Amino acid sequence: MKFSSFLLLSLIGGAAATKTTVRGSSNKRRTLEKDGKKVSSKKGGSKKGGTGKKSTGKKGMTFSTTKPPPGENVCAGKGDPRYENINCFTGDGLVDVGGQAGVNVTKGYNGNLDADHDPITVPYYQMGLCPVNVHWHLGTEHYSLDQYDETGTGPTPVDYRRKLAGKARKGYQCKLYDDSEEIYTAPYHWKYCTGMEVGQTYEVHWPHSALGACGTLNQYQTPFYDGVLCHADRLDGDLQDHVGVQSQVFTIVNDEDYFYPDLMSGMIVDGDMGQDVAMFTGSTTGTTRTNEVCSQYTPITWQVDRVCHKISASTFDKMCADMLSHRDDMSDDIYPHGSRELVIDDLANDNHSN
After folding, report:
1. What was the pLDDT predicted at 326?
2. 267 and 60 in contact (C-beta within 8 Å)?
3. What are phi and psi of 224, to 5 degrees?
4. Cα(120)–Cα(278) distance, rounded to whole angstroms?
5. What is the C-alpha to C-alpha distance for residues 14 and 296, in angstroms, rounded to an integer?
């Protein structure tokens, strides 16, 4: 029986946690109001011939956070009991857990862990998966050479920002930041998101699941485990075919030419966005996991955009407003979370697909 079957049996029937050893080298309409006064940035810095319009957010875009009528949240608590993290290696140095994330997603990369399964390599909706949550990390958990790597920069170093937030894990930044361009430095008055910074790098995750309350008012959940495992009893097959995460990396700019109205529903696919994607299986991430302590939530499919993109601060702010308008309380996800350290090759699966 595969690990995924044990996982769901435990979640459904309350069976004792069991691990598998993997050995190897490894109702009001939302309103959008734009400020009549727009200020041009020093340099254009805009796409498609745009004018580089700046918004402080103070008199700029306003969004509704009105919730739908109250009702039963059928997904509440479905993510428990949760598996505790476990040691990544046995006492004799053998890998004792399934493949992890976040990993190197540079084109051509593969991990050392011999995977006996494949990731989903088509858009998730084609397999019946829907987004059940959105959250993001300060800096990146994955690594893409020359896009978001150790040479990336921002208005403040990621490590410094993490220390301010009480999370000191190192992450990576994009290479787009330029302090001579106002779109990266002009302040934005955040109304809905908290702990955000113009010019900074964030990695957005959209957990998807065929076991979620897709198409209902309970589709989006915090914590995301409730959404992913809302209808765990419906699992028929392997976990990586039913659960996946989309990931996309952004640098925040104060420029409305980079505004997208819906960042909550999933990865943006437009122009070069969502085109160069790494697909593989891994685990859940976050700061409680390291290269010594691993996640047992594996294997799940990952689809990660290798390219760093600019996006307006107002896009994120609207997403946070949208999150606050859902039936479930998503307020624990409207700020940047800490990032897991980069997974070593021996804990990364060798099934990367481009």
Report:
1. 96
2. no
3. -65, -25
4. 11
5. 16
CA distance 291 to 346: 9
Residue at 312 is within a domain:
yes
Residue with the two structure tokens 């995977």: 115
Segments forming the whole domain that contains residue 128:
1-66+86-354
Q: Which two tokens stand for residue 297?
A: 């939530």
Q: Is residue 90 part of a domain?
A: yes
Domain count, the chain: 1
Which position has the higher pLDDT, 294 or 41?
294
The C-alpha atoms of residue 42 and residue 278 are separated, in whole angstroms, by 36
Give the span between the Cα atoms of 232 and 317, in whole angstroms.
32
Residue 311 has pLDDT above 80, yes or no: yes
Task: Please tell me whether the peptide bond between 157 and the residue prior to it is cis, using omega within 30 degrees of 0.
Answer: no
- Backbone φ, ψ for residue 316 (5° rounding): -65, -40
Rounded CA separation 258/275 (Å): 18
Q: Which residues pair with 253 in a beta bridge?
A: 312
Q: Distance between CA atoms of 323 and 268, rounded to whole angstroms? A: 17
Structural domain contains residue 74: no
- In sequence order, the β-bridge partners of residue 149 are 173
Pairwise CA distance, residues 248 & 257, whole Å: 19
Q: Which of 341, 353, 351, 347 is nearest to 142 (CA)?
A: 341
**Distance (Å) of CA 187 to CA 53, 58, 290:** 13, 10, 34
- Whether omega before 223 lies within 30 degrees of 0, making that bond cis, reads yes
Q: Is the entire prediction scored with pTM above 0.90?
A: no
